[in-house]
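cache lookup: miss for this entity combination. No prior model stored, computing from scratch. Input as submitted by user K.M.:
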Amino acid sequence: MAEHYKPVKYKAWEMSLEERFQEVYPPLSERDATVEANRCLFCYDAPCMDACPTHIDIPTFIKKIATGNVKGSARTILESNLLGATCARVCPVQELCEGACVLEHDHKPIAIGRLQRYATDYAIEKNIKFFEKGKPNGKKVAIVGAGPAGLSCAGELAKLGFDVTIYERQKLAGGLDTYGIVVFREPIEVSLREVKMIEELGVTVKTGITVGRDVPFEDLIEKNDAVFVAIGLGDVPNMEIPGENLPGVHDGLEFIAETKTQPLNTIKFGKRVAIIGAGNTAIDAATIARRLGAERVNMIYRRSEAEMTAYHFEYEFALGEGVSFMFLTQPIEVVGNGRVEGLKCIRMDLGAPDQSGRRAPVPVANSEFIVECDMVIKAIGQKKHTDVMQKLATFGVQETKGYIAVDTTTNRTANPKIFAGGDCVRSIGEASTVMAVQDGKIAARAIHEQLVGKGELAASIS
Amino acid sequence: MANLEINFAGIKSPNPFWLASAPPTNSGYQIQKAFEAGWGGAVWKTIGAPVLNVCNRYGTMDYKGSKIIGLNNVELISDRPIEINLKEIAETKRNFPNNAVIVSVMVESKKEAWQEIIKRVEQTGADGFELNFGCPHGMSERGMGSAMGQVPEYTCMVTEWVMDVATKPVIVKLTPNVTDIVQPARAAVKGRASAISLINTINSIIGVDTDTFEIKPNVGGKGGHGGYAGPAVKPIALHLLSAVASDLEVQKARLPISGMGGIETWKDALEFILLGSTSVQVCTSVMHYGFRVVEDLIDGLSNWMDDKGFKTMDEIIGKSVHRISNFGDFDLGFQTVARINHDKCIQCNLCYIACEDAAHQCIDLKELKIDSRVNERLWPVVREDDCVGCDLCSRVCPIDDCITMVEHETGRPHITWNELSKAKPAVVQEWGKMEEYRKTANIDIH
């Protein structure tokens, strides 16, 4: 896949800001897509399908591109994954389908992600509607959070005839697909189009409403036959170091959201930017800063390259973008007179393994130094919604390590009326759009079985 | 959703996709699995005379990294006892009453033998017969298969024997290994056949091993001609289909045609349908990928029909047959020239060398200032006045829509060769007159 990617040259006179924020991978031409699709062996019992959390029938959708049945291809994708257009762009395909491709070992895996984008883009371009809302079954479901888990669950339920309302605290629906994916991976329109598709299935999406504040949880639980909680995670937590409230210290997710929702030329960025963290959000913030025009971007991480949580391809991408990495470096203070002027750090060594199984960083005595910078972006994970957790606990919902505890085969919580999915349940495993989509599907199926399946059974017995 | 049902000489099928008589239709297990996968019908692998098979049976034509663009074989008709086949045919039809089960038969050239097998198969409840007059190897040497189909009189005679006893529709399957396929097709009509199918496999030697000097496929150090099939034979099959479908005697008899030969995708199938096939038969693609290929055959055809606004198969069967014509009836005044889109051109210059060495020397390599890029390589430019409109350059161009053939009115008379021969016989007989005519008709040969 990487053969089409060219790092941006940071010469303002060569590329406009808009050009720098175009999708990194250009769309496949019809010919490229046909050639690539024909490279697919059409394996029987293909491992790529098992590797996809939503189990898209990948050989079939690729075969359909090869035969020119692109409409059928898009349908095959969306039948398993309503957010196929987003997943085509943001899935860590090297870790999933493409990593499992039988051509991966000795050859080059099929560019499954880009082919999926080709087919789903075709459907969007032609404005093809594949699904209809189901015959109303009289059951109501409320969904808290319009991120990928909530949208997927809503769409699947609507197809089955449920009356579904989603409550979303943000102005726009889509969750991190809308606000949290860098523009040059996915333009905001792709996510908003998916929201529209879900709405066209008859789902009501109420944005700007915070459940627990504008609408009480009690009401939702009482007035609906089931509730699906897909609230994701919260803001980036505090680093608990002096000076972190100085002007010039930013939240990584907010920084990304600005580039999704505001004109690029109005976004403030530093000349020298220090990014704290080495996960995928940190990489996104770093590469955005570079593309906006930051001259020096340092990623500061207290462990080493081996322990960083960002995908390897994201690390390689950042290197290609000219981002510098300072491993084994722990920030201890944001310094500055009235605003950020530098980040005081201390060097670390790797000691014995800690609870996470990774070797724990240990400070090196007297090794403090200052990284000069005029902007600090913290991307050290996300807070959990403890207030919501406490509220849900009063309904009997249990938690695991601060995440909502669910049965993985149904995504049902300890309260049989309440289901949950997405990042807010991801106590183990990788938080990703595709996992969230699958959670939504699993919950929708379980809700259907619980509310309609059993009813049918009862009716047939009586 | 378009309705894909067909009625083929009285044989009903939920869609036009049938498995051809071949290894994929060797048993009840296979055919029932295929019906579950979505196939509308199947032609049972030929039953009849006793046989013994050899190893190896397949050779493949692999081309530039693609496997099996062509497949040849020396496998014979069913080597399983007739009783077992008949039992499984009956069971298959019982389990799948809505799918078309057609039984291919082939016995020695004796009236009693043909009539007996037909009667025995009728008892299974099968929907119809296909007479295998096409198998080009193993059976032909014994006076069966293509030996029968290559002599129109035999084709007619055996068809008549069968028609005298058959109560179910009878399809005569034609061999392509003849000079003019229309003759055996007319023989089938004369023999009162209910339908025609084509093509059977084509005589072929798939290759020679350049290390061992053995023929492929190697049967214990020897090899010989086998039946050739797969995507590579499609153009030949389309031609033979169109020849039969546009023959007036066949048209007058209103025999439906089951087309086959290299169908792999729904588009391939559609082309056969547009050229007159009511049902289409598939084998090699299934041998490569399994029965599951039918899903895209159905989905692709159905989506295409929906997009084009067609609702039933009758609206598309044979839709392009009337466009099959002859060289003598082509418009000599229809003129095109090649046009290169330099925004798309990647300067491989294959068009230039093709035109220069193999066509009419009307593409030049020139310095062009296309955009601000510094590019010292030369660009291909067509001299449109000299372009004869042969279309070779656009065929070799690797980029989509880079070279297009643009229609272009030259003032030449729109006349066909046949009309010209009639109107000005001297022109088509003498070069001197031809030269004169060209001048008046604005035809310049450089």
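stored under new cache key. Confidence is low (pLDDT under 50) at residues 457-462 of chain A.
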